[in-house]
Amino acid sequence: MPAKNIEHRIIGKATDRIDGPLKVTGQAKYTSDRHLPGMLYAVPVGATIANGTIQSIDDREARALPGVLGIYHRGNIGQIYRVPPDKGFDFKTDEARPPFEDDTVRYYGQFVAVAVAETLEAATDAASRVKVQYQAQTPNVKGRFFEENPKLKVESERGNATEAFTNATAAHKIEQIYSSPAQFHSAIELHGTVADYDGRQLTVYETTQAIGTHRNVIAAMLGLDVQNVKVISKFLGSGFGGKLWPWTHSVLACTLARDLGRPIKLVNTRKAVFHTSGHRPEIEQRIRLSATPQGHLTSIQHDYINHAAMLDKYVETCGEATKYFYSCPNVKISSAVAKRNVGSPTSMRGPGAVPGLFATESALDELAIKLGMDPVQLRIINEPQKDEGLDIPFASRHLLECYKTGAQKFGWDKRNPKVGSMRNNDGLILGWGTAGAGWIAERIPAQASVELGHDGSIKVLCGTQDIGTGTYTILAQIAAEELKVPLDRIEVKLGDTTLPPGPLSGGSMVTGSVIPAVQQAAQTAAKLVLSAAATAPNSPYNGVDEKELDFKDGMVHRKSEDAKAGVPFDQLLKTCKYKVITGKGQSAGTFGGGKPKESRHSYGAHFVEVTWQPETARLRINRVVTVIDAGKILNPKAGRNQIEGSIVMGMGMALFEGGRYESRLGAPINSNFADYVMAVHLDVPDLDVTFLEFANTDLNAYGARGIGEIGLAGFAAATCNAVYHATGVRVRDLPIRIEDLLTSQV
Amino acid sequence: MKLFAYSKQNELQGAVADTASARTAQQGADIRYIAGGTTLIDLMKLNVETPDKLVDITGLPLDKIETTSDGGLCIGAMVRNSDLASHPYVQSHYPVLSQAILSGASAQLRNKATTGGNLLQKTRCVYYRDTAFACNKREPGSGCAAIDGDHRNLAILGTSEHCIASNPSDMNVALMALEAQIVIEGKDGKRIVPIADFYTLPGDTPHIETVLVPGDLITHVIVQGLAPGARSLYLKLRDRASYEFAVSSAAVIVEMHGDTINDARFAMGGIGTKPWRVAEAEQIIKGKRGGADGQATFKAAAARLLQGARPLKENSFKVELAKRCLVHALTTVSS
Q1: Between chains, do B328 and A48 touch, taking CB under 8 Å as contact?
Q2: Pairwise CB contact (< 8 Å): B149 & A664
Q3: Domain boundaries in chain B?
């Protein structure tokens, strides 16, 4: 049962971003906005082969250019150490090899040298004049992983799915392979580093979603004490997972700063970001489903393979949602990795579940068609009563409510299931599709402080970072709510490793994680002020039992009186000679431990309408209704923005995006924003986003769960399902392209 | 990007004189005019074009759109794309031109890009734009990596075994259908080249794309007046709804007499190494019925226009798509 929503003053109210004015006036300092005195510029040289060895590097011409300090490569780069083994997030990298470690090139664009100069122009020119001779070998960037028949590792199993599938009649089962190409995060802000070493302390301005991990990794790789490394990330021009773990550009910039004794700025080009800074891997998934004639699932087999870099082993856990999404006695999930000459893949918005649900939710639609059932009805009858994967109860599952609300808003009951049978007033053929969404709801450890100053300042301090999602505002809202002061009294300090350690910005876990810590810090700070008021010699409330005092609207007052009759807290601190009173808070994590007691996820449903004009082979997404239950939404304005942004990304995933690896050269050939096609404004119709706020307070007192990723889950499947309904073409290889649709008989 | 010298010329003859000593006016020119810079600066940053000297011509008095005595247009080469597209006379008399320009690039680019520059817009072939790859257009004799590579967006018409780069411009497709005349000031004075003769096919010299020689400066584009009641439109097909080059496009102009097509001119983009026009295809529909009744003739015309197409593995779908594009454009304009 949903917990009753508690009335809040600020929590749950649509709130403008408190950092908005800084951003729109250009005052927000992003990493590459940092200019330090005496700063040098570094520009890496990327390999122009994807597989082979470096024979020689001729840097004479580059070194001779005016303003060039040096060309660094394997022969002359300073000491770089390896990152110690670690199972958690503290030392996580997706490319663990120290840059310039050996003469082997394993992916196109791998950094093989770096030019350092007094100006960006000189460094760019120098980098372009470094002549590298390679012994090239044919790269392997092939897709179609199942054709190689790799050995699959069983990830999860219950019952006997193979037997159940084999015994099912052909009319009640499907088997299909779904593929998705490499997808690139494409954050507008390029990956970059400004590193400054003063002989003892290294300060790293970095485009990172995880300042703590970045500090640990850089300290380890440079051989510095972790206390002597400070990482700062005040604003991020989005990350989408591409900036979670350190990449080689940062290691190089920091190494050069350490060794040259001058600040270094290194900002990757867009091409270098495509080549060296991660992507969602190319994936193939084989889905086998069987059901009773009435549509009850009797088996699910989900096998998936993703490409990974030669030296690293990134696994895209596509079966994550498959384990718990539907009721089914026989489930088998297995995986493999295909080593390729590619830069390392990394987490991208909704890793695992997003590609996973593309495949399973497409397959479910295919099964519904085969059974002659309505796709929503098929989902309803397979709704589980518990998480059957872990055999534990759901903490809060309201998927069917999402479907019900969405279907109603969309008008699903007017759907004619016959392919190509529906038209709009402009004569365009309509296709309607639906799919479900799911994403984990967890916490990671967080600490925070709230400082009340004698100057009247109220500061929230937390070593997390705002990656563009609105974390500054959320922390201000929590503190303002708990301290009972207006939002504009709160100042928020984030993005600095000298602050109390906060959560990394991944897994949609920041909001859920910081709530308990900030609540506790704020409540503690308020209590300490009351305690000071009750005990300090100069206090007007000296001798009053602090239980009779309250803190509201910035005033310390007797509970028996109105807040206005009290004393402003800053005046009280001044009178009592306290410069600052600090409340601390912390909360433990829930993620990555043993088997949980409850299955914690958020859920959603997408309804998509496409228009299809066969005369021009033109397909457009015309209407979207998305319903999400992620518990209490702290800031509906920023929350809606997260879901809408996810849907736009989902449109790209479904219709446009795909990294193409040149088969002979191994180069990601469309490594720019003209050739890597994403949705633009004109592609995006009105998006109808609804939140069902079933606030389950297990995770935190507000009952809030993360919303950064769930909106992308399932969207590509809903689109493919709509496209089938319009055109009769079932696209199983993303993205849906004009050439696929030309085969439509509609 | 290589260091280069820069000068600004406010005199036509001075500009011509400044570039007349260039080794070539084609790929790799050592002296280049610069106007909007929306193609050239990009290519210089990529080291695909490496001029020693740029002659800025934005100060030349070539920024007027004037009507001619036959009701046509004389467009200065410095006229910005956005100004041309939003000019009332262009919108009322040449919808095809306005629509073509507005379907290309972004508002910001159209504000910078000029009419003369757009005529010389370079291909978007990824191999051309990256010096790490072989490209006969950029580096004659180095080979064409696109033919066996990533060529979904490249040409199926006018190609050779040396180059399959497509002309990316939308405006040029409309100008081809409009039979524009290109006015060129050169070392030996002024000459006028019909747009049909302006572009060259790649053949075994894909680095040569136009008839321009050193010193040549495009000063104007002249478009003849259309018959009263002529209808025109531009249809552009692409993956996303905006800000992408055409996979296939059609610029169509018809003069109707009742339901019958008296005269027709059309050209296609996204499929050729230059804007593609085939007079024989136009003949097929002249004197025939338009609108829904014209399907069979339109299909025949499309087949004729695409005759000789040499589709490759990734872009073979363009044959069917281009047919649908032209048929739909002709149906719409003649209905």
Answers
A1: no
A2: yes
A3: 231-334
